[in-house]
Design goal:
By secondary structure, the protein is an alpha/beta fold. The protein has a domain at 103-165. It has six helices and nine strands; from the N terminus they run βββαβββαααβαβαβ. The chain has helices at residues 52-60, 109-121, 127-136, 153-165, 183-200, 211-215, and strands at residues 10-19, 26-36, 41-45, 67-72, 75-78, 92-95, 171-175, 203-207, 219-222. The strands form two sheets. Strands 6-7-8-3-9 form a five-stranded parallel beta sheet. It has a four-stranded antiparallel beta sheet with strand order 2-1-4-5, with helices on one face. A hairpin with a 6-residue loop joins strand 1 and strand 2 (26-36). Helix 2 packs parallel to helix 4 (153-165), helix 3 (127-136) crosses helix 4 (153-165) and helix 4 packs parallel to helix 5 (183-200). The longest helix has 18 residues, at 183-200. The structure holds adenosine-5'-triphosphate. Residues 19, 28, 46, 48-54 line the site of adenosine-5'-triphosphate. Adenosine-5'-triphosphate (ATP) is lined by residues 19, 28, 46, 48-54. GO terms for molecular function: ATP binding. Belongs to the ABC transporter superfamily. Pfam families: ABC_tran.
């Protein structure tokens, strides 16, 4: 079955966002709708301040929309009155712009990843999840014994991908994950995200300013400021 024929794994319907209240309220995300099917990657593009990160945060369940709703796997994920269902956060995972945001500076990468994956899955032994995710992200397992300051930017970003993939999400949200990397490393890291998305049959929202990265996604969603 092709991706086009299967049911959407992520559905965003009429989502908007407003910052501030009362007289200071300001629309920061125009009504946005999107269906993403298993294996599909959507490049989210648009001018600075258009609302791309706001959409990423809503999809991650970090903030609720002002209107509309988000479904994950056909089940309500967030609405103006409710965030993600308890115990389901592993279903949508993020890859941040700055990978150091994903790790405790004085811990090894492996310790941060294990702890996050245990918390999200409720499992005690997460070794096989982490090894499989490292294989998918093409991260040498030995690097997991290092601290974030002891690896390159590209290696840290691959470790952040391991952290995001190991819990078993059905949606990945990557907000400018390659903007701090040189061109070759950026290409390799975005290629890893795209191949993982296809191989696992999950959905990817990839916020990017890089037209080359956007070109390699299944499609593009252009966000325009409200
Ligand atoms: N905490 C906040 N309080 C008030 N306004 C905010 C806040 N965070 C973001 N905004 C505003 O919301 C709008 C959308 O911001 P957002 O970060 O989603 O844009 P973006 O498209 O991701 O921009 P960029 O490409 O520069 O990262 C902007 O006008 C921004 O100034």
């Amino acid at each position: 079955m092709t991706a086009r024929l299967s049911a959407p794994i992520l559905t965003i319907t009429g989502v908007t966002a407003v910052h501030g209240r009362g007289a200071r309220a300001r629309a920061v995300l125009a009504p946005t709708s999107l269906d993403v099917r298993p294996g599909e990657s959507v490049a989210v593009v648009g001018r600075s301040g258009a609302g791309k990160s706001t959409l990423a945060d809503i999809t991650l369940g970090l903030r609720t929309p002002s209107e509309g709703r988000v479904l994950v796997g056909g089940t309500e994920w967030c609405t103006p009155s409710a965030g993600p269902p308890r115990g389901e956060r592993r279903l949508v995972q993020g890859v941040p712009q700055d990978p150091s945001a994903a790790f405790v500076p004085r811990w090894t990468l492996g310790r941060s990843i294990d702890q996050a994956v245990r918390r999200l899955t409720g499992e005690r032994d997460v070794g096989s999840r982490v090894r499989r995710a490292a294989e998918l992200a093409r991260l040498d397992l030995q690097l997991l014994d290092r601290r974030p300051s002891e690896v390159s930017g590209g290696q840290a970003q691959r470790a952040a991908i391991v952290r995001a993939v190991a819990p078993g999400p059905v949606v990945l949200v990557a907000d400018e994950p390659t903007s701090a990397l040189d061109a070759d490393t950026a290409r390799a890291v975005s290629a890893a995200l795209l191949s993982i998305t296809q191989e696992l049959g999950i959905a990817l929202l990839l916020v990017t300013h890089d037209p080359t990265v956007a070109e390699h996604c299944t499609r593009t969603l252009t966000i325009t400021a409200p």
